[in-house]
Amino acid sequence: MTWRLEAEGDGTRVHLEHQGFDLSSPMGKMAYKGMGNGWPAILARMDAALAQRLVITNIQGAR
Predict the structure, then answer these.
(1) pTM of the prediction?
(2) CA-to-CA distance for 14 and 6, rounded, in angstroms?
């Protein structure tokens, strides 16, 4: 998996690329499908964790 961050407006866009699946094999297809189904949940948890961190940082900076 490779990732990169790119500034976008007031935020940051995360680009992820998960590669190396052998789609000619049943196991490779199953892994590809499983990873594809899992990424949305992982990204949602990352988003929530980063949003919480941003709130904590903003509160601490307001003191």
Answers:
(1) 0.52
(2) 7
39 SS3 class:
helix
**For residues 39 and 31, what is the distance between their CA atoms, to the nearest angstrom?**
12
Residue 6 in any domain: the answer is no
Say how many domains are in the chain: 1
- Residue 1, amino acid: M
Residues with Cβ within 8 Å of 29's Cβ and at least 6 positions away in sequence, in order, are 21, 23
Which residue segment(s) compose the domain that 58 sits in?
A: 23-63
Q: Is 17 helix (H, G, I), strand (E, B) or coil?
A: strand
State what percent of residues in the chain have pLDDT above 90.
22
